[in-house]
Predict the structure.
Amino acid sequence: MTKLGAAVIGAGNMGKMHARIYKELYQAELIAVADINEERARELATAMGGVDYYKDYTEMLKDERIEVISVTTPDHLHEEPVTACLEAGRHVLVEKPLATSLEACDRMLAAEKKAGKILMVNFNHRWAPPYAATKNQLRQGKQGRPVMAYARKNDTIWVPTGMCPWLQHSSSADFLSSHDIDLVRWFFELEVKSVYACGVKRVLKGMGYDTYDAIQALVRFDGDAIATFESAWIYPDTYPTLTDSFIELVMERGVIHIDRQREMVDAVDNEKHYYPKSNLSCEIEGRLQGAFKYCIEHFLHCAETGAMPMTSAADARKTAEVVAAIHRSLETGQVVELPLR
Ligand SMILES: NC(=O)c1ccc[n+]([C@@H]2O[C@H](COP(=O)([O-])OP(=O)(O)OC[C@H]3O[C@@H](n4cnc5c(N)ncnc54)[C@H](O)[C@@H]3O)[C@@H](O)[C@H]2O)c1
């Protein structure tokens, strides 16, 4: 089997995950990692068995063995490395959301087209078994057309204050609801035509982070369906899991509930009560399995064959447009119609 030479830009939480998966996959060879924080890049390179590491990713792009690159920089810093990698003729898997502005999405799409390379977005939840099983049920068509969705994705306050303080340059709609918007668009096979959103800025603002505590968006799809997307990232850190996630789909002749709050495991020890997660990634016999890995395998398959990724940049732009409409509605207090002008 030929192995695709792989690299990662951004050696943080997600970069570590991408690097480890490339390292473990039979169809890839991890060549290098890059991070503006050189110490972080060096630590990850060492943990990956001594691959090359760079402070400046443009230096890394001179290595012609590298064919595929994951960009795992913060939400608002995807565009520059993505565009540089495409211009250097590499296939790119960028973390979700594609970008925090539609203009940046469009520039990346133009770079993808010009380069003739793959640009895929890591909306990995589509590969998580509970969501994939839901899509399979819907494909059978027994439940009829979509009527309503409710999607909640909430985090503990450590996420925007400790794990990723840069999240004040993003929003809970970008970071959290983008996953749910992507999923509900995929489930319903409908596009959003209008958005009305409300938000509260109080707790995080009081701590010096200029971002919403919580956002609630009511959307109408074409095809006469509605949905509510909720995101709040101020749960106390004592909550038994970092992320609380729930989706309800009401169809003409059926209902589906997808509860990923617990993922079926409820654990207690002398210090805490918690719900270990397993859908996105779970180590089995020393190798990471789960949605993260399956999504990266799909990316490698697309890079190898030229197939269109299931979560293409063009598709992810539609999710980014809904998030942009949420932000516009938050600013104006008005219902916002799509496509945005
Ligand atoms: N798919 C998922 O389930 C999922 C889950 C969490 C986060 N994410 C996404 O992953 C991305 C990264 O999140 P994270 O938690 O890993 O953030 P992080 O802060 O842990 O890591 C980001 C890294 O990028 C580096 N960086 C910034 N600019 C750079 C540049 N120009 N060149 C090289 N390195 C640069 C930073 O120094 C940092 O080490 C975000 O877009 C986030 O929304 C996805």
In short: The radius of gyration is 20 Å. The pocket of nicotinamide-adenine-dinucleotide is lined by residues 9-15, 34-37, 40, 57, 72-75, 77, 81, 95-96, 122, 124, 164, 175, 280 (CB under 6 Å).
